[in-house]
């Protein structure tokens, strides 16, 4: 299938590794020009070199930290300088620290709300006028399967990513007649460094080995395995495509069938 995004310009947040890098790579393989964002210039440069070696879409990078008070302004400037405009925005953020709901503090809520919700919404709103003017745009926000079924010991993630669900749906109805789609992509257990870190945290909390934690989690996944970044990224690339122009306000789970809800 031709996704119809060759030459499109994409900004992909938190793309130095994991899911963000996977989506950026998938978009570039479809011919899109991608701007990677992260806090490790070394990793970003290596990623761009690998993407550019494939000879399809071009990749460049810019340093960016969602905790930086000038993050939105710096991203807007980088889009203008390095891409010349924006067609696709992939909102991806790192996950917050594990913990239970009864131990959430005002400080932690405020800190992660700033980086996971406020900056995402502000950046999107700032870039929207460009998409409206050209009559085409794709906004994809990476969430978590925890917005459907809260994940134990991830209270902050369950809470803050759920806030983006209402925003995603509301915004989608406001811009649908402008040729802009707004969707969320929800990962289940996709094998990334983040999953390894969470399994380690759960093992410590429960007094078990990482292997025991991993084996127990696999029993809850009908597919019987962890997902691959490439599988998740392919779904993301499709939602950013021309053929997906009638899909908006939706949330797509990529979880191997793990969610028990309909």
TrEMBL record:
It is an enzyme of class 1 (oxidoreductase). InterPro entries: NAD(P)-bd_dom_sf, SDR, SDR_fam. Belongs to the short-chain dehydrogenases/reductases (SDR) family. Its EC number is 1.1.1.100. The keyword tRNA processing does not apply. Keywords: Oxidoreductase. This is 3-oxoacyl-[acyl-carrier protein] reductase. GO terms for molecular function: 3-oxoacyl-[acyl-carrier-protein] reductase (NADPH) activity.
